[in-house]
Amino acid sequence: MTQAEKEQENGKEKDKERDKEKEKEQQRGVKRPIAPAAIPETLQEQIQSNFIIVVHPGSRTLRIGRATDTLPVTVPHVIARRHKQSGQPRFEDAWLLREGLNKPESNEQRQNGLKMVDQAIWSKKMSNGVRRTPVSAEQARAYNCQIRPAILDSSSRVKWTNTSHHPPYIVGEEALYVNPSDCYNIHWPLARGQLNIHSGSGGSLTAVLADLETIWSYIIQKHLEIPLKDLKYYRCILLVPDIYNRQHVKEIVNMLLLNMGFSAIIVHQESVCATFGSGLSSACVVDVGDQKTSICCVEDGVSHRNSRLCLAYGGSDVTRTFFWLLQRAGFPYRDCQLTSRLDCQLLQHLKETFCHLDQDISGLQDHEFQTRFPEAPAFLYQIRLGDEKLQAPMGLFYPTTFGIVGQKMTVLQHRSQGDSEDPHDEQYLLTTQNKQDQSSKSAADRKAVCRPGGCLEGEMSCQGRMGEMSDMPRGCGSGVGASVGGGGDMELGPAQGECLIGAGDVEEPLSTHLSRKTAIISQFESKALGLDKAILHSIDCCASDETKRKMYSSILVVGGGLMFHGAQKFLLHRIINKMPPSFRRLVDNVEVITRTKDMDPRLISWKGGAVLACLDTTQEMWIHQREWQRFGVRMLRERAAFV
After folding, report:
1. Where are the stretches annotated Disordered (predicted)?
2. pLDDT attached to residue 419
3. How far is CA 279 from CA 64, 608, 611, in A?
4. End of a domain among 404, 431, 450?
5. What proportions of the chain, in percent to the nearest 5, are helix, strand and coil?
6. Which end of the chain is more exposed for a tag (fewer CB within 10 A), N or C?
7. What does DSSP say about strands 410-412 and 365-371: parallel, antiparallel, or unpaired?
């Protein structure tokens, strides 16, 4: 027998022995290790950025484009849907109007807010050291009431959108110019950063998601020139608010992967993407949008959960307040109505053109503006304005000026209520903590009760029973707290925020404990914080002094709601004046950044999403369509870069 034949025989004998061992193991019930799942081929391929679409949905504007595009496609986030039956009542989502404006206290609150604004304007000296001379609305009114418009052209050259071919829906700019007499409902699918779910026509979750899918599909086909059947070759990066509704995010991801057919998706927060887009490693991100203002401290690509705040006001509230001030000053365009889409567009334009935050600009000044509406001549109006141009944007710092009564004005990050599809979420982890740890904490609590002094007892019950107080509004020891008061400001400092809830009898039932916690949070959320106070509160909630120092030295303002001349200098002055004295010594340089790299602040978050697409570290964050079909919302918990 040759050497080769011997080796062949030995190999056969070894195979037989292995087979016998397997049979014996199966008989004994021994489990063999499961082979690791093969990595999908799509992961092994080099992902091309031009096959990644970045979607940044806003309450008023949608920004969408390939990750390789210099600028995204920017369109009004609106859809007009044709009535299914003739004679159906017409419905239109409000643009500048909102709940809480027509309460009996609204006008009084507005006037009180305006008094505070006027006091703030007068108290700050101009750069030449002289105080501003207040200009009353009556001085401008006397002139404006005499103004009559001049006809520029007999035809405005603006036309209503052609609906003669009865399209089932119209999207974007064209939807704004649908004639009110046509049989179409107008819907804005997002409001204040969340899905616009309401009791009116088209306000159900299904209807809102259908509107989103229709708008996004239309823009992808028309502007990006990608057929919907080819989306299986594309991936999507979706930007969501810092304080998000987990159920809403789940439904949108479901729509993108299963309905529209994207092959994979990454979900990330707007604030973190804003730091990527601006090239900053750490920043306190202040995103002033059209309907909401969100503030969050981001450090090395991680959003600090405790620091997240969402204020339920934005640029549209400034626009509405500017209209109220214009009326006080005798606005010469007397047919202007907040219920008209085209008038709202005009007011938005006037705010962006005239308003500022430069206190060196004072006195009465003459301006002019044009109106161009369908089926009407083009008119030219003269208008004289004084402090109105400064008073309106200062409403962001004195939100009582907006006159909103009985609405939740400050939103904090709450724990998710859980999802039936994801039983092993953080609720599960909290309720299945190690029993030994719990018993040791209970023993420590009992010892604390026996000791003299009640403060320790309150602290122990706060820590032992509640675990993590991350969803409480709190000041973190620098003495700023959060102003939650109306007339008499109430400060929510460390005592109220952290240990007031835990103080008292250790044997208090958990349900009572939670209800007291909920009451304090509700009280905090019902008050409107000014933008500067909200920034200070957010920074104050960071864990360490070193992190706070980083945030004070890098306050990044994004979004289109604070794009006023002089805004950077104005905000910087207010932050420095109100920051805790202890930090004035520690922080070398407080910096407010409003135009990083000379980029449009409205596009920074989208640009950050495009940067995210190019990073090697994001490869493990992709959720693939097959994974979503199999595991559902659990994939968000496993793959998202935030809790």
Report:
1. 1-37
2. 73
3. 21, 9, 10
4. 404
5. 45, 15, 40
6. N
7. unpaired
